[in-house]
Amino acid sequence: MTMTSPALQRRTLLLKAGAAAGAATVAGTLALVSRPANAQVANLNDAINKAGRQRMLSQRMGKAWLALAHKVQEPAARQVLEQSVALFERQLAELKSYAPNPTIRDTYGQLDAAWVSHKATLLGGTPALAGATAMLQADAKVLALAHQGTVQYESASGKPVGHLVNVAGRQRMLSQRMAKFYLAAQLPVDAAVAAAEIAKARTEFIAATEVLRKAPEANDRIRQELLLADGQWVFFDAALKRMQAGGVAGNTARQVSEVFVASENLLSSMDRVTGLYAALAG
């Protein structure tokens, strides 16, 4: 009787997940990340999860804006942008209200001010090449403060699981950051910088996946979800690598669309992983 090795089983599941990525829809991801389970912050793990989601949203909104500038995936991109703006604002209010100390409250006060400016760049006109640099600069400020808040909430938790929620949540952000810079390079806006940022985020994403997989706190359900995320990553990474292989000029609207959709599917997987870690007892 032939036994299937764990490595072969893992490879088979990974390939199945990769194939499924091509069939998944943006609508599924919209439903997942647009309606968090809790209307208010439930505890520190939930705060870390939502604070980390703010990082992701900063990059996801930029990606959607750039897709609209490309005139690619327009209905989905517009919906992603509008729902992400609404979710960012709702969570910002929740995180400010829940802040357990003055330092965190101050960070979210700064983030509120940066967000007002960034929202104007996102919604103040028709997305186009002329406004891309200003949008990217504004989104960098929002990302930096959202990350600062996430780290502060992790510190307030002081527990190992809090760090894992942060790491898993950062994977969501990296999925959107890589896609955002891919679309920026396509306009093109600072294509060399974009390529360097994609390479940096890719290295971090791969390393963090192993941290999450090998963590003592990872249960069977988390490991299974990470396996499915591996398949999404294979599909997404293949789309990104086409830019490296063909250069900016060699890419097409179809390939831009593939990156947009693949990044949404990877986000969906990593959002589930983050939620599973956040649900663990501290």
Average pLDDT confidence is: 88
> What is the overall shape?
globular
Strand tally is: 0
Element string (H = helix, E = strand): HHHHHHHHHH
Structure class: mainly alpha
**In angstroms, what is the radius of gyration?**
18 Å
Quaternary form:
single chain
Helix content: over 70%
- Proportion of beta-strand residues: under 5%
Main β-sheet, in a few words? none
N- to C-terminal distance? 44 Å
Low-confidence stretches: 11-24
Give the count of helical stretches: 10
Note down, in words, how this protein is organized.
With about 280 residues, the protein is mainly α. It has helices spanning about 5-25, 25-35, 45-70, 75-100, 100-125, 130-155, 160-185, 190-215, 220-245, 255-280. α2 (about 25-35) runs parallel beside α10 (about 255-280), α4 (about 75-100) packs antiparallel against α5 (about 100-125) and α5 (about 100-125) packs antiparallel against α6. It is globular.
